[in-house]
């Protein structure tokens, strides 16, 4: 860890408030995880009792929050140095590291156990793999060692719709893998766009994000390449028949805008375009999964 060579700053920790524990869960990230997990559940063939469905989404939410909490615990040393993270609960002195660690571990165990007991074992195993991948593979191994951290580590954020699907069906299918693939391919251009205007923060703490290691020009090229690979994956649900025409048209139209922004960033290379692509990418993924979910609900109601 960064603090191994430089003594970590000591903080006087206050009695944490409920808001501090909530902030440890990375609520903005957790909301997207909950949403994509719900869409995976809605798309899955078969029937699930409403109580089981609610429990599955609750477990996905708690597991996502636990992962975020443990990530903050491990990264507290670099979070204290980076401008955009220094006000997080641990570096800001609002929550002690030991408290955050215990909170994250208990939430992780509780979410997996509840998923296994109330929903099914397959979904619980996949949930456990997701937590472990995010903490041990991405946070502890990849993040500080390789510029491919986001590419490989992005798998952790891609699991939720697959978990939602498995909660209903009890098994992984090609359709659930496509949902996984959409988020997996979306993650690199999304986070590399962020890293272009947060590059100095990452460089300051020695995190080898792509622009730090390979430069901005290479990062812009990789964003364009991954965007070109991503758009066909987003169209796959329509081609494969588990999404309808509304989704297909939406995916093509929004994908075209994504590619246009990525191409403009590749040519211009300005921070303003990087920010535009970053914020558009959030809207892009939300709308894609929203349309998938709406179509699923309309089919359930016999309207499609």
From TrEMBL:
Keyword Metal-binding: no
Keywords annotated in UniProt: Cell membrane, Heme biosynthesis, Membrane, Transferase, Transmembrane, Transmembrane helix
EC number, as in UniProt: 2.5.1.141
Gene Ontology terms, MF aspect: protoheme IX farnesyltransferase activity
Catalytic activity: heme b + (2E,6E)-farnesyl diphosphate + H2O = Fe(II)-heme o + diphosphate
InterPro entries to which the protein is assigned, alphabetical: Protohaem_IX_farnesylTrfase, UbiA_prenyltransferase, UbiA_prenylTrfase_CS, UbiA_sf
Pathway: Porphyrin-containing compound metabolism; heme O biosynthesis; heme O from protoheme: step 1/1
Gene Ontology biological process terms from the UniProt entry: heme O biosynthetic process
Topology relative to the membrane: Multi-pass membrane protein
GO CC, any one term: plasma membrane
Keyword Phosphoprotein: no
Membrane-spanning segments: 29-48, 54-74, 95-115, 121-142, 149-168, 174-199, 223-240, 246-266, 278-298
UniProt subcellular location: Cell membrane
Primary location group: membrane
Listed Gene3D superfamilies: UbiA prenyltransferase
Other information: Carbon 2 of the heme B porphyrin ring is defined according to the Fischer nomenclature.
Protein's name according to its UniProt entry: Protoheme IX farnesyltransferase
Organism field: Emcibacter nanhaiensis
């Amino acid at each position: 860890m960064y603090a191994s060579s430089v003594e970590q700053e000591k903080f006087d920790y206050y009695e944490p408030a409920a808001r501090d524990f909530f902030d440890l869960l990375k609520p903005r990230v957790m909301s997207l995880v909950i949403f994509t997990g719900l869409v995976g559940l809605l798309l899955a063939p078969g029937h699930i009792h409403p109580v089981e469905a609610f429990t599955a989404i609750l477990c996905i939410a708690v597991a996502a929050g636990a992962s975020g909490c443990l990530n903050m615990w491990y990264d507290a040393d670099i979070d204290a140095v980076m401008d955009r993270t220094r006000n997080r609960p641990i570096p800001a002195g609002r929550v002690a590291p030991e408290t955050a660690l215990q909170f994250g571990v208990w939430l992780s165990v509780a979410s997996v156990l509840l998923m296994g007991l109330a929903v099914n074992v397959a979904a619980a195993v996949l949930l456990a793999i997701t937590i472990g991948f995010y903490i041990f593979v991405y946070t502890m191994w990849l993040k500080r060692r390789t510029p491919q951290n986001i590419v490989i580590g992005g798998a952790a954020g891609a699991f939720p719709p697959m978990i939602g699907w498995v909660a209903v069906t009890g098994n992984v299918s090609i359709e659930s893998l496509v949902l996984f693939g959409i988020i997996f391919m979306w993650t690199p251009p999304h986070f590399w766009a962020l890293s272009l205007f947060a590059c100095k923060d990452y460089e300051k703490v020695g995190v080898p994000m792509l622009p730090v290691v390979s430069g901005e020009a290479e990062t812009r090229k990789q964003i364009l390449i991954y965007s070109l690979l991503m758009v066909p994956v987003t169209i796959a649900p329509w081609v494969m028949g588990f999404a309808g025409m509304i989704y297909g048209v939406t995916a093509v139209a929004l994908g075209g805008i994504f590619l246009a922004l990525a191409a403009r960033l590749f040519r211009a290379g300005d921070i303003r375009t990087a920010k535009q692509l970053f914020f558009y990418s959030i809207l892009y993924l939300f709308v894609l999964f929203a349309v998938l979910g709406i179509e699923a609900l309309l089919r359930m109601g016999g309207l499609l």
